[in-house]
C-alpha cells in the first residue's frame, strides 16, 4: 500500500518563498551589522604607501606596518618595475592570509575587497613580494583603509 499525500502547491511555494526571503534578510542584516558604525563616529579614508627596492636575488621581501587604530582594509594597489610573470604578492593580517600569491603586472593593479578586511589595533599588516624571477626591481604598494574617528 502506497501512502498518498495531498500537496497544496500554492502553500508550498509561499512557504519556500518565505524561507528564502528570511535567509536573504538574515544575510543582509549580518552584512549591515558588519559595517554598522555608531552615530557619533565618522569614517576617515587613508592610504598607506610602501615601496621596496628588490635586489636580483630570488627571495621573499616583506613590507609591514602595525595598525595604530582599528581599521578596515578596502583595497590594495600594487605595481613593479621590471615585470616578470613569475613574481607575485601575498597579503597577511596578523599572519592570516588574505591574498595568496596574486601574480603582479607591470601596470598598477588594484584589488578591491568586497568585504573590508578588519584589522584590530596593534595587529600587523604584511605585504610579501615573492621575487621568483630573481630580477632586480622596485615594488610599489598602496593599501587603502578606513577607520572610525569620534
Number of helices: 1
Strand content: over 45%
Number of strands: 8
Q: How many domains make up the 3D coordinates?
A: 1
What's the SSE pattern? HEEEEEEEE
Structural class: alpha+beta
The coarse silhouette is: elongated
The CA-CA distance between the termini, in Å, is: 72 Å
Averaged pLDDT = 83
Percent helix, as a range, is: 10-25%
The CATH architecture comes to: Sandwich
- Low-pLDDT runs of 5+ residues are none
Task: Give a structural overview.
The chain has one domain (42-149): Jelly Rolls (Sandwich), CATH 2.60.120. It has a four-stranded antiparallel sheet with strand order 1-8-3-6, with no helix packed on it. The protein is built from one helix and eight strands, in the order H-E-E-E-E-E-E-E-E. The relative contact order is 0.29. The radius of gyration is 23 Å and the shape is elongated. It has one helix at 9-34; strands at 42-54, 59-66, 71-80, 88-93, 96-103, 109-119, 124-131, 137-149.
